Amino acid sequence: MEEKMSEEVRETKESRNFIEEIIDKDIADGRTTEVCTRFPPEPNGYLHIGHAKSILLNYGLAKKYHGKFNLRFDDTNPTKEKSEFVEAIKQDVKWLGADYGDRCFFASNYFEQMYEAAVKLIRKGKAFVCDLSAEQIREYRGTLTEPGKESPYRNRSVEENLELFENMKNGMYADGEKVLRAKIDMASSNMNMRDPVIYRIAHIAHENTGDRWCIYPMYDFAHPIEDAIEGVSHSICTLEFEDHRPLYDWVVRELEYPHPPRQIEFAKMYLENIVTGKRYIKKLVENGVVDGWDDPRLVSISGLRRRGFTPQSIQMFVELSGVSKANSCSDYAMLEYCLREDLKLKKPRVMAVLDPVRLVIDNYPEGQTEELEVENNLENPELGKRLVPFGRELYINRDDFMEVPVKGYRRLYPGNEVRLMHAYFVTCTGVEKDENGQIRAVHCTYDPATRGGNAPDGRKVRGTIHWVNAATALPCEVRLFENLVDEEKGVYDKETGELNLNPHSLTILKNCYVEPALKDAKAPDSFQFVRTGFFCVDSRLSTPDHLVFNRSVPLKSSFRLPTVGKA
């Protein structure tokens, strides 16, 4: 295995990021013989785009080095965790393509070993039971410029600490009455090393272990133990854990694990003017601002999936964003770019009318319908062709007609000839209005010689518009999205800290029409609606009798692919 990994390292050295360079050195030095990484979510909410980066990074490292990848739920805080979140996380990880096989673990599986580890620290004189309240512990902790004070309970005997800790486990004390703390250094320049709490009392049932435990380990104590038990070689985490690394190393060193894991930090995934924090997303869900964790306006993984994003598009986005130690912000437009790049050759291009007005071809035979053969995607002939019905009455988009055209307008107006996409040249002859002056129908004539959209006499038209046949078109609902927050004001209100919400983040169009070819469409099917964007069938709202489409991305944006160097 080691020889195989070394060859892989030599062959692709030039493409390595800083994490891979560290792993390369660990392999060369003999510190690592098998790479094992993990994704360790806390099941207290749904995953978002930032988690996608961590999942794909950890899984990618394991795959590149022919190692192992674990999914592990850090379920050490039963007050916030739900089985609903566990199942959602599993679905998201699998959807992204990170194959953890049968290597799905839970921190709660190791509670007995964690308890024994705490007892070992007590026996070594490295942990003590403390009676200070949470507020007193904060006061004793000191500041960034002043050392902390030792707890008056710090020098209890090993025997007394063992007895008190066992009593804690046996439920003899109330929540907050006592804690177990590591005995390290109250004068340390790193606040995390000033005798941190490693166990607290919580009389609450756990999703996995029920009422067996009333004491629970703190994350900073549990996490390195979990990594060590599972044989994780490299514990890849985000930058906010950099100051916690000395404590991580202290735990695995004092517990004398023969192959201690190595923690490496990288920069988080941030999106400019986008709500990414789990705490804020949770608030939006609970306040009913969005219709759930999978609302397509969110950058939760389930929200992105419902909006029509693909695993491949998110993988591309993560790769373009890079891996580095420096925090930076990516543009949401780059995420949209990645989706367009993934879909443009894969999806059929169909016609959909989102704001319909009737178009009547007066010289077309009444009652006649013909079928036009159309390429599903001109750039990808492998997607084949379909038949599109055409008749005397059609629907076109309302903004494709203008009774009094502005300068440069090339679409339909009285006296102007345009091309109906895939069909015929038509010339506008007039309009029909209701009693309120609203346009009810546009009238035109067609040239039968231009079937297929080309004139045998070589004449050209400047405008091409799309349409659907009124007699066979499928009614549907379409949902258009904008950013959840007001980008001009910024994400957060500077005075209140509340989100600056955009009241126009969701637009629902009820009276839309699509080609009959989409009659059997169901989630996660997606299509390019010509001239409009990429759309997918909504996984929650759409039914066979009521099609609902979400716009994934518009066809174009101002984003241009940046020059990406090595991280």
Blueprint (SSEs and pairs):
Blueprint: H1 2-11, H2 18-28, E1 36-39, H3 49-64, E2 68-73, H4 83-95, E3 104-106, H5 111-123, E4 127-130, H6 134-141, H7 158-169, E5 179-182, E6 197-201, E7 215-217, H8 219-230, E8 234-238, H9 245-254, E9 262-266, E10 270-271, H10 278-286, H11 301-307, H12 311-321, E11 329-330, H13 332-343, E12 349-350, E13 352-353, E14 356-361, E15 369-375, E16 385-391, E17 393-397, E18 417-420, E19 425-433, E20 439-447, E21 464-465, E22 468-469, E23 474-481, E24 506-514, E25 526-529, E26 533-537, E27 547-554
Parallel strand pairs: 1-2, 2-3, 8-9, 10-11, 12-25, 14-20, 18-21, 23-27
Antiparallel strand pairs: 4-5, 5-6, 6-7, 13-24, 14-17, 15-16, 17-22, 18-19, 19-20, 23-24, 25-26, 26-27
Provide key terms for this protein.
alpha/beta, Rossmann fold, Ribosomal Protein L25, Chain P, 7-stranded mixed β-sheet, disordered N terminus, ATP binding, Rossmann-like_a/b/a_fold, aminoacyl-trna synthetase, Glu/Gln-tRNA-synth_Ib_codon-bd
